[in-house]
Amino acid sequence: MTKAIHDSGEGMKKDALLTVSSDVNFISNKFPDYKIGPNNIIIEPEEDPQLPSLKDIVAKETSQLLEQQRRLSVRDIAKKFENGLATAKLTDEAKWREPVSLDRQVLLKKLRDVLESLRGRIAGRNKDDADEAISMVEALAVQLTQREGELLHEKAEVKKLANFLKQATDDAKRIIEEERANARTEIETARAAVQRIEQVLQEQEQSLKSEEKQELEELMKEVQEARRIRMLHQPSRVMDMEHELQGLRIQLAEKSVYCIKLRKELEMNRMLEENRSQVYELQGPECLGSCLHIIPRTAAAPDISIYSIQWYRVLPEGSKRELISGANKPVYVPEPFDVGRFLQAEMILNDEKVTVTTAGPINSAAGLASFVESLVRKSDSEFKVVVVQINGNNYSSQSVHVFHVGKFRIKLCKGWSTKAKEPYSTSMQLCGVRGGGNAAVQSLFWQARKGLTYTLAFESVRERNAAIMLARRFAFDCNIMLAGPDDRSPVPRSTRPTSPD
């Protein structure tokens, strides 16, 4: 935008001496017609009453410029800004207004140049009009310059106001976001507090219910006790019968226990009478975790090593017996499969046959059943063992292995490596070591599959028996009868010991 500075009248006159432009646009669209007479005297033509004078033309142009200036005033811009126009539109209007202002300056300059040119050509009254028009143009230029300065100042103020409003809008948005975040945090805190209160109320309600239930049970007990006391103080025929029945039940139980005791004593006396002629007998407790030894009763008895020995399981009814495969030594360690049965050792030398039998059935170890029941609840139980033999050959390493008994398989591991891992099947066998001295009490025989057998030593007798019982329990759940070699085929024979021929 061109800016004109008015210092004094002399400067304005010097600016008026510039070259006159030829593209001035008047309302009449032409210059006035002048005639040059003799001696270069300008002869004015007769005035046409229909054409306006030069003063009127200048006044009209001035009014048009003022009207255009009024339309483009800062008040109008502020009104548009108040109505919600964007800053981009203000920038576009400012860009559009700059060439307009520049055109006004050029127009005034061209008008002045034309008036200066006409003043030199005319004389008389028209020359005075031209001077007056030139002064009006100069005043208009000064007013235009001042107005442009005011417009620039107002434009700067508007920009400041726009920047301030923009910053205020950003600050308001930021404050709104912060308040919204704080509100969300408070809502979450309040929600968590409500949940805690609900939880506390539920706990209190449950505790009240449990207390009410407990009080109700205590009240029922008190009522029953009161009824019992009342019935004691007021006996009836029914109560007398109940007391008599209770007494008869107690007497019957005592008689049953006494009869069982007498039957056992009679059986032991009868077996002692039959075994008086025997020269051998079994030594050791008749329960799990013990060793049964065949020992001579007299010093004159032959050496046991010359006999061929075979152990049997005898059912309590005495109708048949089962051969214990591999139990062919003077020492035998009972296993869980022997619980509730008699054990019998048959000694054969040529045609001579000697049998020795336990006085009663093999009893289980104390607390073993409850220990096994606690292990059944687990899906996998671990036992620390030492491998004694593999496929009948001694295993030199004494490193500790882990014997896993699971619901569906048995696994033997050493650290992270797995030595054997087999599911329960008909080819699998598991039993105690049959013979072998005192070490057999803590050992078992495991055939994982055909062609792969292990002899494992446990840390205690209890763990060895618990592992056997637990594995047979899980195998039975899989419809597998897990036992030792040939334990499934009973051998019917008389269970009574026979005297030597």
TrEMBL record:
A Pfam family reported for this protein in Swiss-Prot or TrEMBL: SCAB-ABD
Keyword Coiled coil found: yes
Keywords for this protein: Coiled coil
Record flagged with keyword Coiled coil: yes
Recorded superkingdom: Eukaryota
GO molecular function: actin binding
Record InterPro entries: SCAB, SCAB-ABD, SCAB-Ig, SCAB-PH, SCAB_CC
Coiled-coil regions listed in the entry: 173-229
A Gene Ontology BP annotation from the UniProt entry: regulation of stomatal movement
Every Stomatal closure-related actin-binding protein PH domain range: 380-487
Protein name: Stomatal closure-related actin-binding protein 1
Organism: Iris pallida (Sweet iris)
Species lineage: Eukaryota, Viridiplantae, Streptophyta, Embryophyta, Tracheophyta
